[in-house]
Amino acid sequence: MDLSLYLEPLELPEINSVSETAKHRLGDMIRSYLVKDEFPELSDVDIAIIGVIEDRKAVNNEGCAHAPDYIRNSLYKLFRGDNSPRIADLGNIRQGHTINDTYFAVSTIISELIKNKIIPVIIGGGQDLTYANYGAYENLGQVVNIVGIDSVFDLGKTDQELNSQSYLNKIILHQPNFLFNYTNIGYQSYFVDAEAINLMKNLYFDVYRLGMVRHNLEDAEPLVRNADMITVDVSAIRQSDAPGNGNASPNGFYGEEMCQIMRYAGISDKLSSIGFYEVNPKFDNNHQTSHLVAQMIWYFIDGFYNRKNDHPYKDKRDYVKYTVSIKDNKDKLIFYKSKKSDRWWMDVPVKTTYKNIYERHHLVPCSYSDYQTACGDDIPDRWWQAYQKLM
């Protein structure tokens, strides 16, 4: 497929203004689709950056369509880490004649990249583009886990049109449905109706308050390790760190905390796409938010090139297996610990009739504390919620 049909080349003069003496910057290493160049060769590319110039459904945040090039200008000036990244920048998807035209272009490009084992990094636009990202997996017929880093759930109302604050409801109700699990990281209670929290629990989705996650940031690692796709709303970051958003608020993650979570995302063998949304240069202060998102992408790239490739579908000899018997429970809990990374997984039983459909989801990332909980004769919450879905 010729992806260039959906994309426009870049004109980024600032990137080329970097001093000739500064070597090994990402801008010198990324294969960019520039006006003067051909569309980049993708046969040996690991990560592809895609800008989306679309904000028609970005509630209270018109102007976020202009974010992609601002983020690029900051990203390209960063030095690479201890790796030799193979990254292509495919340019920008312009607004379609209708919003559905944009969604179609986004879904088509992402599904084609995933099919070729290239991770799309989507920058710019409103978070409603998450719906288009999800559509890419529908094109592939793949059941997915979505992780949203957001201060709210973006459920909206049943009869509400699709926008940046209702996209999740549209994904949940979409038929045929390819959503296995949704996890929210960092919601803030005063922004979320108690009924919405109960709904998420009734759907056996995983939701984690901002304070809970910040109390022990390492607990976020198994959450993002379970994701096929991640959607990041920059309003999840406190306004003092990321002012470039029409819905920014005083509380949220610190910038360095988001960078740590992005590194966790990068090292996840399962993750196959990620999007950074709602950055609005109109509200920014000296491009601070664009620069922060660029650093978040840097950490994601660094994590990617430090992947251990120890997802437990590989050789079982690379893992230590632990079996825990729970009193009054007919099922024994099976845990695997990777010898490469010391990361943990739980093997959750699944009905035989669903085995093929949920093959990628019954091995649930967890932490050592989940194993300790089981050893204390209690079932970890993570295990129980996955069990409810699989049985």
Structure write-up:
There is one protein chain. The longest helix has 17 residues, at 99-115. The protein folds into two domains: 3-304, Arginase, Chain A, CATH 3.40.800; 316-390, no CATH class. Helix 3 (99-115) packs across helix 4 (129-140), helix 4 runs parallel beside helix 5 and helix 9 (255-267) packs parallel to helix 10. The protein has twelve helices and 13 strands. It has helices at 26-29, 67-75, 99-115, 129-140, 167-173, 194-202, 210-215, 220-225, 255-267, 288-304, 368-375, 381-390; strands at residues 31-32, 47-52, 87-93, 119-123, 144-149, 179-187, 206-209, 229-233, 273-277, 319-325, 332-338, 344-347, 363-366. It has a nine-stranded parallel beta sheet with strand order 1-3-2-4-9-8-5-6-7, with helices on both faces. The chain has a four-stranded antiparallel beta sheet with strand order 10-11-12-13. The chain is globular. Strand 6 (179-187), helix 6 (194-202) and strand 7 (206-209) form a beta-alpha-beta unit. The mean pLDDT is 93. It is α/β, with parallel strands linked by helices.
